[in-house]
Automatic annotation (TrEMBL):
<protein>
    <submittedName>
        <fullName>Serine/threonine-protein kinase</fullName>
    </submittedName>
</protein>
<feature type="domain" description="Protein kinase">
    <location>
        <begin position="21"/>
        <end position="284"/>
    </location>
</feature>
<keyword id="KW-0547">Nucleotide-binding</keyword>
<dbReference type="GO" id="GO:0016301">
    <property type="term" value="F:kinase activity"/>
</dbReference>
<dbReference type="Pfam" id="PF00069">
    <property type="entry name" value="Pkinase"/>
</dbReference>
<feature type="region of interest" description="Disordered">
    <location>
        <begin position="316"/>
        <end position="337"/>
    </location>
</feature>
<keyword id="KW-0808">Transferase</keyword>
<keyword id="KW-0418">Kinase</keyword>
<dbReference type="InterPro" id="IPR011009">
    <property type="entry name" value="Kinase-like_dom_sf"/>
</dbReference>
<dbReference type="InterPro" id="IPR000719">
    <property type="entry name" value="Prot_kinase_dom"/>
</dbReference>
<keyword id="KW-0067">ATP-binding</keyword>
């Protein structure tokens, strides 16, 4: 918190009563003012708590000019009578001074508002323990205030988290009316609050627009759902917010809803906000929180047994039969990623040391090994990769709309490389086709593309539904193939380089997918409400692939890997419980008991 130039106990007031107010507690400094909690003592002795915004010293003529502007604001706000709009009063007086001592000669401006027992919206969002229903109610109440203001043809123009207070019972107050303006009056000053203003800038001499308030409400919706994220880029706010929400585990429908008021076209922002907020309330009530295990990988340990690495709301964990000694530090005790969206695990270097790349819920990329965890990059979307032919653990991700890769090997620092010719909004899957050449599946501008990085060829567009629920890539004798889950869970197999896609899920929606290039063709695992399904290549005299179901219990995630002895390992999240299977020496599937 910034330090104040004053201390509690000092007095201030109008020139005719300079000790009417007493400073109690400094709150914050914003712009060219300090905000304090203060108490006013009336002539009858009645005391009243107030919020005092003290304008830092200016030229006296400028102070009086601002006072005239504030008087207009106060008069107009009282006349509008908008519920839960906190209307201030204003005064001129000497600077805060000790009681009984003569005030100084200077004059200062004070904005006095009724004290609200609430906290700024961003602080409330970080401390909220009542979940998304409480977030929805706060947003609905804010939208009601803004709609009422707009119906009376006025705009706030400076909506930001600091200017929205949330009381303990969830009631919302909109404060700081310094730039309140009618729609039919030209502007004499433009307002720019970083992170909360739309791409169309206000112009002195132009007219105010309700679209500015609509955009700001969209930024607050994103702040309520992602309170730990930084500022939005006003040029790509809708796309950025949507990527962040998807990465944090929100549905595509909910991410689209938040993006609506952030649209770059002012005419396409929802107005009035009430119906938009009501629709969001239903989406938020229906949303299910991030599962305890949201991503996983499986790989053979040094003895050929399966090791399952998982991530979710509890950070990174790992399990397998006979784990000794520990190969990864606990994320909670080692400053690692607290919540995970994607992981890439592998054994790199001659010593086959276990390492993990992890994307957390805030869009940061981490790398971890036995020694600890380190943050590598921020603002990433999606993570996929594997150990390459050189023994390095490689992860591919999208960052600032461009495909990037990061490599790690024991005893070396993480190195990154940007692919400027490979636009990408999110990485879905990646596999090394041959030495130095990778196939990477990405989403970009509502399209699914496959980049063959290192081949010198252009991206191949796949006729797959954008906003894929999941995807997997694998090598085969016929070339790389991709499995893509559509938004409805439909699974289709795409031969890359040409050929028609084949629907493989037998019309049963899937929630997760994994694939491994293996023996007679790719083996594909699907997870869904009907359990785990494994699509095995045709063998013997059979012409069609075979299906095997290791469990009928609902599953959400699956992972596959191939060991050095060509045996497959399969792991799944079954009703939020980790389960594992492995082929034996005769390539028959056997369940594996995991240490817990």
């Amino acid at each position: 918190m910034s330090e104040s130039r004053w201390v509690p106990g000092l007095r201030f007031g109008p020139e005719f009563d300079p000790e009417q107010y007493e400073l109690l507690e400094f709150h914050h400094r914003g712009g060219e003012a300090e905000v304090w909690r203060a108490v006013r003592t009336g002539r009858s002795g009645l005391k009243e708590l107030v919020a005092a915004k003290i304008m830092l010293e200016r030229d006296p003529s400028e102070v009086r000019r601002w006072l005239g502007r504030w008087d207009d604001v106060s008069h107009n706000a009282h006349r509008l009578a908008v519920t839960d709009l906190v209307v201030p009063s204003f005064l001129l007086g000497p600077s805060p001074h000790r009681p009984g001592s003569p005030p100084g000669d200077g004059v200062m401006g004070y904005q006095i508002s009724p004290w609200v027992e609430g906290v700024p919206l961003h602080r409330w969002a970080r401390a909220n323990r009542d979940g998304l229903p409480a977030v929805a109610e706060v947003l609905v109440r804010l939208c009601r205030i803004v709609d009422e203001l707009h119906r009376k043809r006025w705009v706030h123009r400076d909506i930001s988290p600091a200017n929205v207070l949330v009381e303990p019972e969830g009631r919302v107050k909109l404060i700081d009316l310094t730039f309140l303006a009618p729609l039919d009056r030209t502007l004499t000053v433009a307002v720019f609050t970083p992170g909360h203003v739309p791409p169309e800038a206000e112009q002195v001499g132009g007219f105010p627009a309700t679209a500015k308030d609509l955009f700001a409400v969209g930024t607050l919706a994103r702040s309520l759902l992602l309170p730990e994220h930084g500022r939005l880029d006003q040029r790509t706010a809708a796309q950025q917010a949507r990527r962040e929400l998807l990465a944090a585990g929100f549905s595509g429908e909910l991410a689209d809803w938040v993006a609506e008021p952030l649209h770059h076209d002012p005419d396409r922002r929802p107005a009035p906000l009430g119906p938009w907020a009501a629709r969001g309330r239903e989406l938020l009530r229906a949303h299910r929180p991030l599962p305890r295990t949201s991503c996983l990988a499986v790989l053979p340990d040094t003895a050929g047994r399966p090791l399952v690495v998982s991530g979710g709301s509890d950070g990174v964990g790992y399990t397998g039969p006979g784990l000794s000694p520990p190969e990864l530090p606990a994320t909670r005790t080692n400053q690692g990623p607290p919540t995970l969206r994607e992981i890439v695990a592998g054994r790199s270097g001659r010593a086959a040391e276990l390492a993990v790349f992890a994307e957390d819920g805030a869009g940061a990329l981490w790398v971890g090994n036995r020694s600890g965890w380190w943050e590598v990059a921020r603002g990433v979307a999606g993570a996929a990769g594997a150990v390459n032919s050189a023994g390095e653990l490689v992860v591919w991700t999208a960052r600032a709309g461009v495909l990037q890769s990061f490599r790690w090997s024991p005893g070396a620092t993480v190195t990154g490389q940007e692919m400027p010719g490979c636009p990408a909004d999110r990485v879905l899957a990646a596999t090394e086709e041959r030495v130095g050449t990778w196939s990477v599946l990405v989403e970009h501008q509502d399209r699914v593309l496959c980049w063959q990085v290192g081949s010198g060829t252009r991206a191949e567009r796949i006729s797959a539904p954008a906003r894929a629920r999941g995807a997997a890539l694998a090598r085969s004798s016929a070339g790389p193939q991709a499995v893509i889950l559509g938004p409805d869970g439909t699974a289709r197999l795409y031969p890359l380089g040409g050929g028609a896609p084949v629907e493989i899920g037998e019309s049963e929606p899937a929630l997760g997918v994994a694939m491994a290039g293996h023996r007679g063709g790719p083996t594909i695992a699907l997870a869904g409400t009907g359990g785990v399904r494994l699509r095995l290549p045709a063998s013997g005299g059979a012409r069609r692939p075979r299906w095997w179901r290791p469990t009928l219990r609902p599953a959400t995630r699956v992972a596959l890997s191939v060991g050095d002895d060509w045996r497959l390992c399969l792991a799944a999240v079954v009703e939020d419980e980790l389960q594992c299977w492995q082929e034996d020496a005769a390539y028959r599937w056997q369940p594996v008991r995991l240490d817990v």
